[in-house]
Design a protein that fits this description.
The chain has a seven-stranded antiparallel β-sheet. It is globular, with a radius of gyration of 16 Å. The protein has a single domain, classed as Alpha-D-Glucose-1,6-Bisphosphate, Chain A, domain 4 (2-Layer Sandwich). The relative contact order is 0.25. Helices cover 27% and strands 36% of the residues. By secondary structure, the protein is of the alpha+beta class.
Length: 180
């Protein structure tokens, strides 16, 4: 990466890349959510294109600042959510990317990013869009982590509710992308 980084520090958790092939690290909270988002190769390609250009996060209501307009390994991104003084910035680095392949048939594409210092969690989250044998398009969101500090650990019920809320927004965003 040339130029200044938008977030400093190094990946700060065990199990880097585990959302791509597992197993997820023991001792972490894990969440795997899968949902139907559409049908057919065209819907799959639209959803993947949006996912790999940060539209999944942006349409979910996050403020996204990334070092690249396209998801690439090593790219750093800071997602912001909340309002005013209650805005939380969540710096991450892309740790793996799988791009779609030409032609039809069952396949999947996705990426995972891991947390950097300043994120409220230490862990990883991934997004995978798949096209199955019946032509159904599915999204799978996989996340694992632990609170980054005592403050976030003390608010674990609020953090869990926020995680469920943003995941539901990712699912809605994927449906919108697939629909065009």
């Amino acid at each position: 990466m040339t130029g200044p980084r938008i977030a400093g520090g190094e990946l700060n958790y065990a199990g880097i890349g585990a959302t791509e092939g597992g197993p997820l690290p023991e001792g972490t909270e894990a969440l795997v959510t899968q949902a139907y988002v559409g049908d057919g190769e065209a819907a799959y390609r639209r959803a993947v294109q949006g996912m790999l250009t940060w539209q999944l996060q942006k349409r979910a209501g996050l403020r996204v600042k990334a070092e690249s307009d396209v998801v690439r390994p090593g790219t750093r991104v800071v997602s912001g959510f909340g309002v005013g003084p209650f805005r939380i910035n969540a710096p991450c680095e892309v740790v793996w990317v799988r791009r779609p392949v030409p032609g039809g048939g069952p396949q999947s594409a996705g990426f995972g990013y891991g947390t950097l210092p300043g994120h409220p969690v230490r862990g990883e989250e991934s997004f995978e869009i798949s096209l199955d044998e019946q032509g159904r398009v599915l999204i799978t969101v996989t996340a694992f982590g632990v609170p980054a500090n005592w403050f976030y650990a003390a608010g674990s019920a609020v953090t869990a509710r926020a995680r469920r809320h943003i995941t539901s927004r990712y699912l809605r965003s994927a449906r919108e992308l697939a629909a065009g």
